[in-house]
Amino acid sequence: MLIEDARRPYREIADEVDLSESTVRKRVVRLQEDGVIEKFTIKICREEERCIIAFLTVIPKSENEIKELLRETQLLPQCEEVYFLAGQCGVLIKVNVPEITELDALMETFRGRSDVKSVERVCVVLKPIKTPSPNNHQFQ
């Protein structure tokens, strides 16, 4: 029950399992002391959400072929942001996927395109430090 809702009141648990509230509380404390329960926390990523954020640098074969690549990346739901970079840096794509296997598949899709020379860098976000607030997007 605590796995489903760590904030669930001990009284509710007690009523459901037919024990006293103090017994439930003692058992939870014992589970914490024994290391079975390490901490109570929130889960940021729900199963239905995409949770792996990565940045890909895709290098087109030529400047002439970049328009189609840019157009198609804008249509892919996994590609949250797409930037055409100055110089010979290609296209920077911020992707958001639910699993690492989907990131691998997306990279293979880019590598398999006839207009893509290479996928130069793949950087997976370990921990966001500062992100734009929902109401303050600089690039729209």
Any overview of this molecule?
With 140 residues, the protein is of the alpha+beta class. It folds into two domains: 1-42, Winged helix-like DNA-binding domain superfamily/Winged helix DNA-binding domain (Arc Repressor Mutant, subunit A, Orthogonal Bundle); 52-124, Alpha-Beta Plaits (2-Layer Sandwich), CATH 3.30.70.920. Helices cover 31% and strands 22% of the residues. A four-stranded antiparallel β-sheet has the order 2-3-1-4, covered by helices on one side. Strand 2 and strand 3 form a beta hairpin. The radius of gyration is 23 Å and the shape is rod-shaped. The model has no long low-confidence stretch (mean pLDDT 83).
Strand order of the largest sheet: 2-3-1-4
Q: Can you name the CATH architecture of the largest domain?
A: 2-Layer Sandwich
- The rounded distance between the terminal residues' Cα atoms is 43 Å
| Range of strand content | 15-25%
Largest sheet: 4 strands, antiparallel
* Number of separate domains: 2
Helix content: 25-40%
- CATH homologous superfamily of the largest domain - what is it? Lrp/AsnC effector binding domain/regulation of amino acid metabolism (RAM) domain
Query: How many E strands?
Result: 4
Unreliable stretches (pLDDT < 50, length at least 5) are none
Shape descriptor: rod-shaped
Tally of alpha and pi helices: 4
Integer average pLDDT: 83
Structural class: alpha+beta
- If you consult CATH, what is the topology of the largest domain? Alpha-Beta Plaits
Question: Strand-and-helix sequence, N→C?
Answer: HHEHEEHE
What is the alpha-carbon Rg in Å? 23 Å
At the first level of CATH, the class of the largest domain is Alpha Beta
